[in-house]
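Write out the bound-state structure for adenosine-5'-diphosphate.
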Amino acid sequence: MPDSGEIELRVAEALQQDVGKGMVRIDHELMTKIGAAPGDIVEIIGKRTIGAIAGNSYPADVGLEIIRMDGLTRSNAGTSIGEMITIRKAQPRMASKVVIAPAAKGMRIMASGDIIKRNLMGRAVTRGDVLALVSPRRTKETLREFPGSEDIFREFFEATTPFSLGEIKFTVVSTSPAGLVRINDSTVVEVRPEAVEVMEKKVPDVTYDDVGGLKKEMSKVREMIELPLRHPEIFDRLGIDPPKGILLHGAPGTGKTLLAKAVASESGSNFVAINGPEVMSKFVGEAEKKIREIFEEAAENAPTVIFIDEIDAIAPKREEVTGEVERRVVAQILALMDGLKERGKVIVIGATNRPDALDPALRRPGRFDREIELRVPDRDGRIEILEIHTRAMPLSDDVDINELAETTHGFVGADLAALCREAAMHALRRVLPDIDLQEQRIDPEILEKLFVTSNDFMDSMKS
Ligand code: ADP
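---
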């Protein structure tokens, strides 16, 4: 039993608006029990012990013994949704210095230590934490309220050209003093140019926070895939076989690949992908060899999620034109799946937008015997997806996500992601002619203009 200064809570996912803020949400009464108040730092004790800012739970969660946290926080604490963790009030020391580096090889941080410090102000970090840089506020108020926030927009500009438009992730390499420290105004944040190995664990590229509008589907995925990957012993004890194969079906761009990646990273599994059409274009005999190798490697590195995209290209119904190669490849996949000994530790996810075109042999028990349909998102789903893809963008006041969701009927996740990317590029193109690329610093007046506006979205929709 935890002593009186500690409580045990069940981990739950964060709401989209809290992602990237280093905040966890707990019932106020429980917070009081451990002597903490909103704004205090609490220690989260999972496989690692980390710090987070305590926030009040949402009204609907009052009375529930849960703690809501985002995917990076879960990954940092070495926990996952549904697990129990211990929390207690933390007494972090003030950080005099924090050294950070890109979270992955090949990633670059263009930001200065000062900008990162401002982004992390008040947060508690410890060596090995992986954090993401997001715009703290995304409206013009930011410029008024946050002194120096134009740097954040400069950052957005620098980070987006010529690199990606995504979030920037970095690792805390060291802190002084050591242990859990809180970042304040006098902290010096030093940025290393190259990635440094500090995490024992891989950095998740994708977490459940990055998947929008698929709540029900995600909980099925977690039950069917994450549970056996994490706790194969449950299935042993019940004397039932964990699933080996799951079929995700839905229109292109609905998030099948994204969801498969998210469940792999949230369950601490490896992820390998086989592209159906690509593997079939190989020379005779080569497709089979490639697939066999992937299965062998997957078993060696278990737990592993093997993702077969466009599986209908490999395993079409027999009455459709099937060649000798298809027949052999299907037979081999079935044999490899039948032969999987790593109970639950290797799971094959097949993705298709034509489930009816699949060879029925693949859908028999012990093979791809469970199915999850990913539907085209409804309005609420589109809101969630748009929130995800604008998370790191400086949006102007006139952008109304609800309205955008209203006008994008029929858009799937990939369409919405492309729309946001295109709108950001529009904003960049608008200021590009005014920028002297030789200059070290960009004129703040130009940065004032660097907002993604409602018009940027409208124009992108037309093109
Ligand atoms: P599929 O495998 O179903 O064809 P993907 O997972 O490859 O679709 O989607 C492509 C991209 O579109 C993703 O990387 C992501 O940026 C975006 N996307 C698709 N679905 C979603 C979703 N449900 N939530 C957030 N983003 C999504």
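---
DSSP finds 16 helices and 18 strands in the chain.
The radius of gyration is 24 Å.
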